[in-house]
Amino acid sequence: MNFRLFFINASIISTLLLTGCGTEESDSVPKEEASQHSADDERDINSITVRPELADRLKIGQPTLIDLADKIQVPSRVQVDEERTAQIGSYVTGRIINLFVILGDYVKAGDRLARITSPDLTQSQLAYLRAESRVVVTQKAADRARHLLAADAIPVAEVERRQSELEIAKAEFSAAADQLRLFGMGNAELKELDKTGRILPWLDIKATREGYVIDRQVIVGQVVQPADPLFQVADLSHVWVVGDVPEQIARDVRLGQHVEINVPAVGSGNLDGVIIFVSDTVNRLTRTVMTRVLVENPDRKLKPDMLANMHITDAHNKTLVVPEAAVVRELNQDYVFIAVSDNRFERVPVELGSEVAGFRPVLNGITIDHRIVLEGAFHLDSERKLAELE
User: Fold this and answer.
1) Which CATH number fits domain 47-69+318-389: 2.60.40.10, 1.10.10.10, 2.40.420.20, 3.50.50.60?
2) Residue extents of the structural domains in the chain
């Protein structure tokens, strides 16, 4: 009786164990198959087998090494050419009684800008006339002394004394004339003063160079000092474009280098400029180097303080590149297609630089030995997406 019960229990246990093992085996098989299908699906996302007619339209090749020069864009601004600009003011303290120009007027060197009256000018003219009169008097005294010496009427020492007084008088006259010239009087005014002896009550402030009046900071009746800037005259046939180049690329900037200048306010065309100055110091706050470019401006389209962009061509270097047409992009990731066989291709992620002259520098992902799709990558990617939907 006990033996029979043991046999039944053993049979039941064996049945339960076999049932459990069968369940585990049946569960494990679908999991392995599902995992295999998942891997196959993930592999198929980036793989595509194309029809022969599409494969014939694809251009296959390799990444290439070329001399690539990047264009660096530097925000800049237009400035007047300081070598063709003049700040003009009064050489004497006085009051402005008349103005002859307004902003934008074209003037030549010597043209009148304003008229000023000054007590200092009057005193300097009086000093000039007194010095001139003293020269005349001492010259006559020296001449008489030489005649008397010839008649043995005076000693030699007296002749030398009068000659010394004449030299001093001439020096004082020359200094007085120089003072009037410093005040702005020209040779014509000095000759008129010599001829008539009449003191001029005013003096004209004149342009010192040819150009356009781009600044005027004076009105009639204003009292001005020699240190006050009254007018700014500039030749705008050439202007400066000044920009701050990052210190990392400043080593590639050199004097005499041609750069492209783009000024959005005057149109989309690029102007040619020549670098005439590169600062020897770095701005410690912005970590940039100030660079100055000379640009021709015959039509005066470029105005001071206009915003501009300076395009500096970087140094040439050998770089592995792929054509822009070989790149497809999805979810902010760049891809290229590698040719596995004549009609099978694999999409691989790559890290690329910014586009330069129709090429993308390769940073990571492929080498020069890979065979990739150079043209037709977009159509190939479209076929891949259609196959993925199926």
Assistant:
1) 2.40.420.20
2) 47-69+318-389, 119-182
221: left (phi over 0), alpha (psi -120 to 50) or beta: left
Q: What is the mean pLDDT of the chain?
A: 84
119-182 is a CATH 1.10.10 domain: no
The per-residue pLDDT for range 104-122, each reduced to its tens digit, is: 999 999 999 999 999 999 9
How much of the chain exceeds pLDDT 90, in percent? 51
b/e sequence 215-250, b meaning 16+ C-beta within 10 Å: bbebeeebebeeeeebbbbbbbebbbbbbbbeeebb
Closest CA to 308 of 268, 363, 258, 251: 268
Rounded to the nearest 5°, which phi and psi values hold at 244?
-110, 110
Q: Quick check: 38 pLDDT over 70?
A: no
